[in-house]
Amino acid sequence: MSFQVIGLPVSRGVAIGRAVLVASSRVDVAHYFIDESRVEAEIARLRQARDAVAGELSLLKRDLPAEAPAELSALLDVHLMLLHDDALTGATKQWIVERHYNAEWALSAQLEVLARQFDEMEDEYLRERKADLEQVVERVLHALAHGPEAGFAAAPAVQARDFAGEDPLVLVAADIAPADMLHFKGGVFTGFVTDVGGRTSHTAIVARSMDIPAVVGAREASRIIRQDDWVIIDGDNGLVIVNPSPIVLEEYRFRQRQGELERERLSRLRHTPAVTLDGERIELLANIELPADAPAALASGAVGVGLFRSEFLFMNRDGELPGEDEQFEAYRAAVEAMNGLPVTIRTVDIGADKPLERMSVNELRHEHALNPALGLRAIRWSLSEPGMFRQQLRAILRASAYGKVRLLIPMVAHLSEVKLTLDALARAKQQLQDAGRPYVDVEIGAMIEVPAAALMLPVLLRYFDFVSIGTNDLIQYTLAIDRADEAVAHLYDPWHPAVLTLIAGTIRQAREAGKHVSVCGEMAGDPAFTELLLGMGLRSFSMHPAQISAIKQRVLRADARRCAARTLALLSADEPREEGARRLAS
User: Based on the number of CB atoms within 10 Å of its own CB, is 561 exposed (0-12), middle (13-18) or buried (19 or more)?
Assistant: First the structure.
């Protein structure tokens, strides 16, 4: 039966493929594909975890006190029965064999299948047994996480390749953790659908960086779409069509081909200098997340890296932080890959929608914060872990000996943080000097993503060499909206007068002070804002490599002087979105 799901369009284009579900679980698990040679070992992991849980349950039953209610013993028998039921472990094994899921993913996928079957049962007693099944699965997942080969999750993952047969695949999930996105990025999936998230949630940002269609905030999509359903993702309109009719399928295949032709046409601009009609040279930089992204940045025509999100080196490591040497090698690899072009490395921006496996007391407290976006994140987290912070600073400084490196500090809001950061940097330099390690004095910049930073910019400019505007968080904090929450996603408004005033003021003040200013948030890669930002005086945009050609096309067709005149009128409008659509398009 065909049906539709409505969500938020966050990455343009059309994707068509069979659904692969990343099931939601009360226990966070890793999702990755395993190689053929690993299948038997992964089945063995599952079997060992099952046997360990069976031993625990049998021991609990044996040690029940004589006065314990008979129901407790019966409940343990039910759990043991579910544990050994072929519908659970046998079917989980099939996910491993046929789809090459890791054991945790396979078990979560099968739980989702069985949970739906329990929900459809008429007998109330049997429906309530779903809770017992969930408890059993959680015990097995815990055993897998602490088993003899639990660390295998940190090994390099493989892509689906031949596991899917001829059909393309789309990923459907309640949400996708940043650590899982590291495995899926650049992989087999042609599109994403998630139940939660907003236009600038992490999943949306990564989908745009992969240049694949995505719809987020689709509510119950992961509950009503089943494994292997045919799915169309309309990333232009926020529409998900499940099991489409042949006529609808053919219409979207035509749109898909048209989109591919347009991308191919735009790609021809990658080596054309970005210069406006009135001769203003515009700097188009790339945002990257791992050193392996640098070649794509070069291939897209980027003239440097405006944002290297270093936190992705810290994720999916089972709580083990990367050491100084490992970080240095990663930063050096990115710097060398850019062949002398500048690389701006942001210090670790952990927190909010990018949590880290918990290790310290600070992080344990942070895990239970009511609002992580307002808690211990970004530079706050780094300053609370001074040893880790100095390690990262030393690694970045060491990489500066191999090319042009700039250092970027996220979420600056207090002068005290600025001074502590500069002290940490000075100490890191002294430590490198004492050790005889070469480095270059790098430029240091501040991310303007908190309204306080935009309002105290003249003070910050006395301490920093450049600024970079992170529009995603600036909008979030200015409008008091959790940008990953689909319930308030309609209030996330880049056109809001307060947001535009802060951005325009930051660009103007930085230019007046002779300091370099760029925008590295999602607005930089959105063609709807190109003329607006040019009119504000912005001459440096940083975005995902896949977006550079589209922005370059807008730059080549723009007249910066005319944009400035239109923008001036727009900033005084009560409804900038409506005024912008009229003025900037004329």
Answer: middle
Asked whether the predicted pLDDT for residue 427 surpasses 90, the reply is yes
Q: Is the dihedral of CA 372, 377, 383, 386 positive or negative?
A: positive
What's the pLDDT tens digit per position in 345-385? 999 997 655 555 544 434 434 444 556 678 888 999 999 99
Angle at Cα 71 formed by Cα 70 and Cα 73, nearest 5°? 70
Query: pLDDT (tens digit, 9 = 90+) per residue, 385-418?
Result: 999 999 999 999 999 999 999 999 999 999 999 9
Asked if residue 135 lies in contact with residue 88, where contact means CB atoms within 8 angstroms, the answer is no
| Beta strands at 466-469 and 516-519: parallel, antiparallel or unpaired | parallel
Order of strands, sheet of 239-242, starting from the edge strand that comes earlier in the sequence: 3-6, 239-242, 230-234, 14-22, 169-173, 189-194, 214-216, 8-11
Instruction: Give the model confidence (pLDDT) of 193-212 as tens digits.
Output: 998 877 777 677 777 777 78
Which among 100, 183, 520, 544 is annotated as catalytic? 520
pLDDT score of 177 more than 80: no
Calculate the CA 28 to chain-centre distance. Answer: 16
At the fourth CATH level, the homologous superfamily of domain 3-24+159-265 is Phosphohistidine domain (3.50.30.10)
Q: Exactly one of 202, 366, 544, 563 is catalytic; which is it? A: 202
Span 128-145, average pLDDT: 83
Residues 6+ apart with CB under 8 A from 101: 31, 33, 34, 95, 109
Is domain 268-583 annotated with CATH 3.20.20.60?
yes
Q: What is the mean pLDDT of residues 479-494?
A: 81
Q: Kindly state the tokens that stand for 544.
A: 């995902």
Question: CA-CA distance, 339 to 27, in Å (whole number)?
Answer: 43
Evaluate whether 19 touches 231 at the Cβ level (below 8 Å): yes
Residue appearing with tokens 């390099």: 156
Helix (H) / strand (E) containing 130: helix 124-145
Angle, helix 386-399 to helix 415-435, in steps of 10 degrees: 60
Selected from 1.10.274.10, 1.10.443.10, 3.90.1300.10, 3.40.50.2000, the CATH number assigned to the domain covering 36-154 reads 1.10.274.10
Does 202 qualify as catalytic in the annotation?
A: yes
Each residue's pLDDT tens digit, 311-351: 888 876 666 789 999 999 999 999 999 999 999 999 999 76
Instruction: Considering the chain, tell me which residue range(s) the CATH 3.50.30.10 domain(s) occupy.
Output: 3-24+159-265
| Three-state DSSP class for residue 289 | coil
**CB-based contact 529:523 (threshold 8 Å):** yes
